[in-house]
Amino acid sequence: MSGYKIHLLVCGGTGCKASLSTAVVENLNHEIKTQGLDDFAQVVTTGCFGFCEKGPIVKIIPDNTFYVQVKPEDAREIVEEHIVKGRKVERLLYHDPDKETIVSDSKHMNFYKKQVRIALRNCGVIDPENIDEYIARDGYKALGKVLSEKTPEEAIKLIKDSGLRGRGGGGFSTGMKWELAAKNISDEKYVVCNADEGDPGAFMDRSILEGDPHTVVEAMAICGYSIGSNYGLVYIRAEYPLAIERLKTAIKQARDYGLLGNNILGTGFKFDIELRYGAGAFVCGEETALIHSMEGSRGEPTMKPPFPSDSGYLGKPTTVNNVETFANIPVIINKGAAWFSSIGSEKAKGTKVFALAGKINNVGLIEVPMGITLREVIFEIGGGIKNGKKFKAVQTGGPSGGCLTEKHLDTPIDYDNLIAAGSMMGSGGMVVMDEDDCMVDVAKFFLDFTVEESCGKCAPCRIGNKRLHEILEKITKGNGTPEDITRLINLGTVIKDTSLCGLGQSSPNPVLATINNFMDEYTAHIEDKKCPAGVCKALMKYEIVDENCVGCTACARACPVGAITGERKEIHHIDTSLCIKCGACIDRCKFNAVIIK
Amino acid sequence: MSNIKVELKKPDVDKIKEICKSFNNQPGELINVLHKTQHTFGYLPAEVQEVVARELNVSVAKVYGVVTFYSFFSMIPKGKYPISVCTGTACYVRGAENVLDEFKKNLKIEVGETTGDGMFSISCLRCVGACGLAPVVMVGEKTYGRVAPEMVSDIIKEYTNQK
Amino acid sequence: MEKVKLTIDNKTVEVEKGTTIYKAAKTIGIDIPVLCYMDLGDLNIENKPGGCRMCSVEVQGRRNLAPSCATDVFDGMVVNTHSMRVLNARRVVMELILSDHPKDCLVCPKSGNCELQSLANKLGIREIPNQDIAEMSTYRKDFSPSIIRDMDKCIMCRRCETMCNEFQTVGALSAVNRGFMSVVAPAFEMDLEDSVCTYCGQCVAVCPTGALTEVNHTNRLIRDLSNPNKTVIVQTAPAVRAALGEEFGHKPGTLVTGKMVSALKQLGFHHVFDTDFAADLTIMEEGTELLSRLTRHLNGDKSVKLPMLTSCCPGWVNFFESQFTDMLDIPSTARSPQQMFGSIAKTYFADLINIPREDLIVVSIMPCLAKKYECQRDEFKVDGNPDVDYSISTRELAHLIKRANIDFDSLSEEDFDQPLGESTGAGVIFGTTGGVIEAAVRTAYELHTGKTLQDVDFKELRGMDGIRHATIDFDGQPINIGIAHGLGKARQLLEGIRNGTSEFHAIEIMACPGGCIGGGGQPLHHGKFEILQKRMEAIYQEDKNKPLRKSHENPYIIKLYEEFLGKPMSEKAHKLLHTHYVDKSKKIIYIEPKSFEI
Amino acid sequence: MGKIKTLADLRKMREKLKSETDLRDKSEHPEDMVQIKVAMATCCIASGSRETMNYIVDELEKRNVDAVVTQTGCMGYCYAEPTVEVTVPGKEPIVFGYVDEKKANEIIERYIKNGELVEGIIPMNYRSIEETK
């Protein structure tokens, strides 16, 4: 029956592929063949394991050995030692930096201990390009169940009862959204999957699409049945070629099996899915903008109401959900609303996928129950701050979110708590900052993003964000005045209050949140003309420490603008008015005589 | 707008027509058509947009409006080796800005420009989703992870040597 | 209709469900400021992108402020249109808009007539914070023969885009770029002149700022009028007299023909003539052409194409020359009245007063911006000298009258000069939609049947519907007539012709809403339909007042043919009064061999 | 590939395919089921441990026993190869020597299924193979 006694799961996500995981697969296959183990061991390219920091990951089943940072040349040793001789290759196992011990299986790694994988249940477990593996793990069971056992109303009620809320940012009840579209009578309705994940530093949706595309296909069909639609569209970023390919494969396989198309599973239900590509506009994550983009227009948002559930794609009732939301649907159908709502917190049910990034030890993709604290996420799962630096803040909700600090570490994560703390859930990006990050600069970075991504339709967002950015620029250049803070706050508040869509309504958050939490840093920039983190170039001063300078002239020769003077064997001097702070002198000095103040 | 004037040969025009036709000349498919056209020609010069507009029966102004709205579409040809520096948050906090500056300095071009010999162009992109490897740089299809400014000249050399 | 009750500024108001806050407030006299919003009422064009946020109001229980122009009321809604939160927000957003707007109001053509300027004033903006570090979005200034685009002044209200695309379906303009640099522009930000723009001027008519303005010839006119070596004559289009009064505080629909003539004389024109005269002449030519095409067609001549389309609207001519190039042989070859006038003036009249054409300056007062372009066309020049030297709009004329301290109201009523100032009622109604075809019918009927019309009022041809049709009985021969105003409607009729479903014999098309009375050079009607309606009534009133109402009865026309032209469609008439059309679609494909191959 | 026309088809297919990926699920929760480790060093393979392992895997499946079979390095009892360590939930691990197909059959039927002791146990001087490292 089951031919293979050993499975070698190799991560084929974008991150691991970038670190040559495809070559790892090739080499493993080659070695297994050389050893004549073709029918004994099987290499499976799976979706993302989440532990991107240590990619590429190779997991050996059944003994659950978790190899990290595997290079193509390691394949031979893995096969010869582990598969043939049953000896684990110790140097490729994960080293727990805290306890300085070796952990051989993922179960015992802090990164995985607190995770609960629902949306990511198949990621890193199955071959995303093989529908059979999906079916084997209860794939399309939920679709079958809904089609045969439930009326659309019952299906919607089940989703409503589960308490699932949109995972794309807004947090609107998914069941209610479906209900609104279901209530509208129309000759045609549409199910749209929003896969235009644009938050910089977020890759949840990409990982799901790459690791488990069928779950989205199945969920969209379930949604179609529930709201009375026969047509689904996935709006996906063109920057995600691998996800596009896998989704295309999944749709084709589903069609071949008759799980998409006419008369699905003999029930008479008809549903099919098409892809639409984004073209690099963050604002298209907003559902009205997304719909305009799918219609072939500029992705400018329009006023709501009318909501897409009343008038969406081509003016027809449309339900837009994001990838992660959809990924939860089949499980909820299979295991029931009560099971789902038992996970998570009082106000937010289920789990949330986060992309951990930034100055954190374990960069990667995690799925945790709602209500977990930031501390658990950052210090237990994330393994704390890189290089033993001090935690300063975590940015959630992408450019629309805010910064959470030390004092929020024990706040349980859910939609409302994050908003109360001045940030938001967003789609799930979590970028960790340490003491070396300047919060004024970070605010400027996000504003730079919104300025570039603002569609330009409404005045507060189009011009206001530009002005916010200019004021921040002024402050980081050392020209700020105390009035600028007042101006930032008033301007920021009005932009939030008057902007047309979610982009502008949240774009000042990074500024307002950093003013709120890191006023001392703003004051340092404005009053003392100093950047405490040493990031803002204009506020840095290069100096030569007299005691260390030997007069070797190396720095003077390196200086591109002739700002350094001094005779040979005499102490040199930097003319700060000429200095462009390029850092060439520091690089050149062998005596640590140049310092930044 | 670019000042490059392009002569479209008949096969080129036919190719564009074929692409439009594969989407049933539906105006709603404009973005898909533009994707495919850009994939074919490498960029979307004005003349190409005019043909697309005519085939889909929409105004050229609208096509141009769409092309200039989406950062994925370009009206100038990219370099033989397009360099994309990820400036997503994760890469930013891990020093992408310095890497970008180094590329600009090294190639003496700005973001969105192409070197005189047509070899390299630089663009920024927002998050390729390889945050574990931050900062990330892509040259063509190849991804470089954990790029430090010191590595930049070596990366460029890799391509200048192949020619 | 379902009613909802709500409270606005503590006042209770009951309105129909689906009404916006803005409109609900209006019913109780609360005028919420708007900027990008534009409601063209019966034209069914409502521009409410929700872009300027000037109309923001506070709605109880709502997280953020609501744009009242685009937010529907609901039962029990509590709205505050003037809370301090609202006033602060409006001020800040206005400061933002101004921070990206040139401050040269003193010399801006829209100064004093600028919606942005007056709203800024109303909101009490006295300084713009951080202007010293504020970058401005700047664009190349674009001059065309009719319209100037100064997009530094664009506030992205998108009204022009709506007019150009939704109403006119011309598609010359679109929002381009993204974010701070987004702006409304032709494709590739090319010159308007190279685009498919028809110069209909509807974009100019709705622009709230100085971003889109007409090419202004008043200074040139003053220079010419002060030149003793030139004879300067003027012609005034029919629609001007029905709207000019509005610029001087008169109610819409006030006819000011006599005062207008008087003002023009005071300004120093040597002769004040009437385009209506040329309109009568147009009917002679176009009517004859129609009859000839009709007769040949009815006699089974397959080489004759029908329907015949009118050709007096230059915006419309530009439209089909660039977008319906397969149908260039359908419109009448008759020149527009403006050009017929110029042609006759610089030949017949110049001879009459015995001066060389170079010394005769022909100026036209037009409700239209496309006329500025039309008179520059090469077809209408003789050895480089244009038949009509330049055209100024109704608005420009009003400005000039004010500038010359002429007290318009106290002017006496004067008559046009002869011989080019006499007109019939048929010439007058050219100013409104349906008028040209009605005038043509009056003459064609009598010429065709040899009978005298008992009633010259063809009510079935009148009205404001975008597309109208009627069948006129030409003594047993039914003639199907179509009428469209607005180029979007014209497109519909043209597509009918293209796919062979059209059964019309003749179609009148006007580019602007209501015809010339709603032209791009008229006093701004802000989309208020009742204003257009009043102007239309005035035109028909003027027609009624005329002793002669059929073009072929105009004694000066009869004389012109006798003394100069011979017969309608004669060789001379052909040379002077007819034209041909060129395919302008070619110009947008520029193939310049060399450089890049792809 | 044929179409899945009915729900029953889908169910059948799932049952058939389940075994393919079952291993991946089971390996996540080894403590809930019988764990069998087969020593698989070169010396063991030479004495037929691979055949033993294949036999055990197939038989367990046939007899519907929830178990995870993994391989491990040499246990050091080379004299008694092939050697197999069996951990039944709640019990201490036991190592068997000279496990050929016959022996394996006995272990499954008697020890694993019925909890009876079987001959051939190697005296334990360690707790678990893993922890010897």
Summarize the structure.
The complex is a heterotetramer of chains A (597), B (163), C (598) and D (133). Chain A contains 24 helices and 20 strands.
Largest interface: A-B, 53 and 39 residues
Chain oligomer state:
heterotetramer
Largest sheet of chain B: 4 strands, mixed
CATH superfamily of the largest domain in chain B: Glutaredoxin
Number of strands of chain D: 5
Structural class of chain B: alpha+beta
* Average residue-wise pLDDT of chain B: 87
Total tally of structural domains of chain B: 2
Q: What is the beta-strand fraction of chain D?
A: 15-25%
First-to-last CA distance of chain B = 29 Å
Number of helices of chain D: 4
Tell the overall outline of chain B: elongated
What structural class do the secondary elements of chain D suggest? Answer: alpha+beta
Question: Can you describe what's shown?
Answer:
Chain A is α/β, with parallel strands linked by helices and 597 residues long. Chain A has 5 domains: 6-113, 3-Layer(aba) Sandwich (Glutaredoxin), CATH 3.40.30; 138-340, NADH-ubiquinone oxidoreductase 51kDa subunit (Rossmann fold, 3-Layer(aba) Sandwich), CATH 3.40.50; 351-360 and 368-434, Ubiquitin-like (UB roll) (Roll), CATH 3.10.20.600; 439-526, de novo design (two linked rop proteins), CATH 1.20.1440; 541-596, Alpha-Beta Plaits. Chain A has a 5-stranded mixed sheet with strand order 9-10-8-7-11. A 5-stranded mixed sheet of chain A has the order 13-12-16-14-15. In chain A, a hairpin with a 7-residue loop joins strand 18 (564-565) and strand 19 (573-574). In chain A, helix 9 packs across helix 10 and helix 10 (213-227) packs across helix 13 (323-335). The model of chain A has no long low-confidence stretch (mean pLDDT 91). Chain B has 163 residues and is an alpha+beta fold. Chain B folds into 2 domains: 10-69; 81-162, Glutaredoxin (3-Layer(aba) Sandwich), CATH 3.40.30. Helix content of chain B is 45%, strand content 12%. Chain B has helices at residues 10-22, 30-41, 46-56, 60-69, 89-93, 96-107, 152-162, and strands at 6-7, 81-86, 120-125, 137-139, 142-144. In chain B, helix 1 (10-22) crosses helix 3 (46-56), helix 2 (30-41) packs antiparallel against helix 3 (46-56) and helix 3 (46-56) packs across helix 4 (60-69). Mean pLDDT of chain C is 93; it is low at 587-598. The N and C termini of chain C lie far apart (60 Å). In chain D, helix 3 packs across helix 4 (101-114). In chain D, a hairpin with a 6-residue loop joins strand 3 and strand 4. Chain D has one domain: Glutaredoxin. Chain D has a 5-stranded mixed sheet, with helices on one face. Chain D is built from 4 helices and 5 strands; from the N terminus they run H-E-H-H-E-E-E-H-E. The chains are: A alpha/beta (597), B alpha+beta (163), C alpha/beta (598), D alpha+beta (133). Chains in contact: A-B, A-C, A-D, B-C. At the A-C interface, helix 17, helix 18 and helix 19 of A face helix 2 of C.
